[in-house]
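Homework help board

Subject: predicted structure for assignment chain

Our instructor gave us this sequence and asked us to write out the predicted structure in token form, then describe one feature. I got the tokens but I'm not sure how to describe them. Can anyone check?
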Amino acid sequence: MNANIATVWKQVTPALEQELVEFWREQQAIPNEDEARKRADQAICVLRDQDGALAGVATAIVKVLPRLRQPMYYYRIYIARSQRGREAFLPMVRESRQILQDFNRGLERPESLGLLFEIENGKLGKAYPHAYEPTFDATFIGYSPRGKGLYVSYFADAMLQTPAQIAVAPGHGGVRRNTNQSLPAQQQSG
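My token output:
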């Protein structure tokens, strides 16, 4: 694979946003333009093929899973069918992790402890069946409400933060708590 990974975290230009929207539409990954524009703002890095055409993108948004009660980057990666395989996936994951880890080191208080993966692609689930995957330094933590495998990859030296408050559904025992006020409700995830 003769491809290049470029960092775009917090640097998405209007031209790149439009290129991402068109890429996702052409790939039938995110056909809704408004959704694609929101996702474009979350881009960490992009993969370009040998001709400079967009071939993949990694994105992240901070979410708090009730089981962890810690902020994590919900990590997504989309690679064009022509570029798929470990030779594209692993470099994108490793580069994304490094970019986000470095970004958080520069913050007074980290906004995330690491990456959260929800393995949607069945081929990836079969390619990485272990409880701990050293190839991308991730540990299996259970299943999402959609039945997909969840993995976390913590940044080096990540320190636990005060646990986020979560809402307890009526009838599940315990006291109903307020939703974490430090994150918008749409960034909360089960």
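Reply (TA_rk): Your tokens look well-formed. For the description, you could write something like this. Residues 174-190 have pLDDT under 50 and may be disordered. That's the kind of observation they're looking for.
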